[in-house]
Amino acid sequence: MTMELTPESRLAAHCVLAQQTRDLMDAVALTDVEEGELAAVTAALAELTARLGARARTSPQPFEIAPDGSLRHLGNAVTGGANPHALPLVVELGDRGARAEVVFRPLHEGPPDGVHGGISAMILDHLLGQAVAHAGFAGMTGTLTLRYLRLVPYGRPLLATAEHTRSEGRKTWAEGRLALPDGTPLVEASGLFITPTSWR
After folding, report:
1. Dist. CA 7–CA 18, nearest whole Å
2. Which residues share a beta bridge with 158?
3. Burial (CB count <10 Å: 0-12, 13-18, 19+), residue 97
4. Are 62 and 68 a contacting pair, CB within 8 Å?
5. 67-84: string of b/e by CB count within 10 Å (b at 16+)?
């Protein structure tokens, strides 16, 4: 994989565009404007889509080396600042593993007033992977087991955490949770990660 520095001003502009698109997605999910306005906005979006599609890659922003020397992935579906699908989640790494503050949006709804279980799984899968990578055992998800304990609300601050628990050869295990700020658990997760032989 080739790592190249990308012009920062263009990347910054792309991240601003992605955030504006997130705002648009929220507005689309919640709007109650008249049918005529829906049609007018749709036509405007079609024009903008064509402008952006005039020059397109076949894949999202790639992994790259940031100016500070860190590895970043602005196209990632969970953390990517240039990916409108991403929250984007900001992960903090430390001695205890990985943590991230999360506020889900109405766009993530599954059951009434709650976050879709698959969205919770995606966030915890990513955090578990970050925890094992931070511990020095980067790998691909082999199995992911979740226990849904309570409804996960959107629009409220939540805390996601994960920590590496053990490793054995190419296998690494991690545990994580999604909880309210007071520590009340909402979802618990455990994962097995496999390090590909080509990565060792």
Report:
1. 17
2. 102
3. buried
4. no
5. eeeeebbbbbebbbbbbb
Question: What's the pTM?
Answer: 0.90
Burial classification of residue 86, based on how many CB atoms lie within 10 Å of its CB (0-12 exposed, 13-18 middle, 19 or more buried)? buried
CA distance 94 to 18: 28
pLDDT in tens, 8-45: 899 999 999 999 999 999 999 999 999 999 999 999 99
Task: Name the nearest CA neighbour of 136 among 174, 101, 176.
Answer: 174
State pLDDT tens for residues 124-161: 999 999 999 999 999 999 999 999 999 999 999 999 99
Q: Which amino acid is at 85?
A: H
> How far is the C-alpha of 20 from the C-alpha of 176, rounded, in Å?
31
* Residue 5 CB neighbours (<10 A): 10
Handedness of CA 191, 103, 44, 75 (dihedral sign): negative
